[in-house]
Amino acid sequence: MLTMEPKFGKMLLVGAIFNCLDPVLTIVSGLSVRDPFLTPFDKEDLADAAKSQFSRDHSDHLALVRAYEGWKVAERDFAGYDYCWKNFLSAQSMKAIDSLRKEFYSLKASAYTSHTHIYI
Q1: How far apart are CA 24 and CA 81, in angstroms?
Q2: Which residue from 65, 96, 106, 120 has the fewest beta carbons nearer than 10 Å?
Q3: How many independent structural domains does the chain possess?
Q4: 67 within some domain
Q5: 118 in a domain, yes or no?
Q6: What is the pLDDT of residues 77-102, one digit of tens each?
Q7: Would you state the torsion angle of the CA atoms of residues 88, 89, 92, 96, taken in this order, to the nearest 10 degrees?
């Protein structure tokens, strides 16, 4: 059994209900690990510009989703580390987000086969 904060569990349930589980998985996973957006002391302006390309003047949550999606594409091309380096992202955090997404997604499959009741 995977433990998580109740608010994250609710987010996952609502994401499944409204058929938008994929980005919610990324957001919940991203909020559960160290912030993947790096801000080196001597390159704050460049790091802020890199993050703003993902947010496009919207929320940090959408920036996280876009950064993760780009990282996944780069990973398929064996360029995940380069992607992180160029975009001031923590490769370790991105891998942790990916791992947590898989764990959280497995809860969906087990929820359909479980005989326990879940109350919100």
Answers
A1: 24
A2: 120
A3: 1
A4: yes
A5: no
A6: 999 999 999 999 999 999 999 999 99
A7: 170
